[in-house]
Structures are given as structure tokens and as C-alpha cells.
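Weekly structure sync, notes
Attendees: PL (lead), two postdocs, one rotation student
Agenda item 3: pending single-chain targets
PL asked that the sequence for the first pending target be pasted directly into the notes so everyone works from the same version. It is reproduced below exactly as submitted, 147 residues in total.
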Amino acid sequence: MEREEEKATLVNELAALLAEEALAGGENPKREIEKLVSESVYGPGAASKRVNVRWGGLFARGECPSCSNKIERRGEEYVCESCGIKIPADVFDRAREQHVREADRRERELHIQERMKALGLTEDEVRDVYDRAMDLSDATGGTKGEA
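Predicted structure, written out during the meeting:
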């Protein structure tokens, strides 16, 4: 019975994690920065082109997301003197917060996956835990426990 109780706990924790992800899904300031980088690299009107932004370099080391040189805050925006990209400070700050939340969720999900492995769950059981968590998250927003 202890194994089933642990599986139910994992379902509840994963459902809460999935609900957090869904709630955070509306605003995407990181995508706003990607659009600015795309226009910086490819020119005006190219915001739809996908670019690879090194988020860790941007937030941890202050590297420009367009050219990797130094980006610095100047008043209400972050500016790179090398390539000229300008990122509104509020977008930069919200993107940094989003990046931290995503990293935290990834770490918590990894911990849940490690617990599933330690419990010796089969591939089918892991799939079942995820399916039950998704159903629970959809039904309750991750705020109620599983029956």
C-alpha cells in the first residue's frame, strides 16, 4: 500500500507543477526578447523568425542575446553598445523572473522523476502517473489532492 500512496503523492505534486505551468502560460516576456533579437539580426519585420537566445548568458553574465557582448541597463532599458539592441527593462525583468520560475519547475520535475525511478516504477506506471497528474491538473488547477 505504501507504494500506491507514494504514487498518489507523486501524482499530486506533478499536478500542482503542471497547473503552475498552465497559469504561467499567458504572458511570455522571453518571446518578446526573442522577437527583438530576431529583428536585430534579420531586420525590421523579422520578428517571426526563431532565434536561439542563451538565457543563462543573458541573465547570469549580462551577455547580449543578439551578439554576446555586454548588455547594460541604461534608465528604462537594457542596451548593447556593440549591436544596438534595446530591451525595455520591464520586459527584461519579467523574462528573468520567467527564466527563474522555469528553472525551478524543471528542477522540481526532475526531483519527481528521480523519486519515480527510486520507487522502481515501470514505464507504464510513469506514464500513468503523468496521465493522472494531467487529468487532475486540468480538473482542479492542481489545488486539490487526488482521491
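Discussion points:
- The chain has one domain: 2-140.
- The CA atoms of residues 41 and 66 lie 7 Å apart.
Action: rotation student to compare against the earlier draft before next sync.
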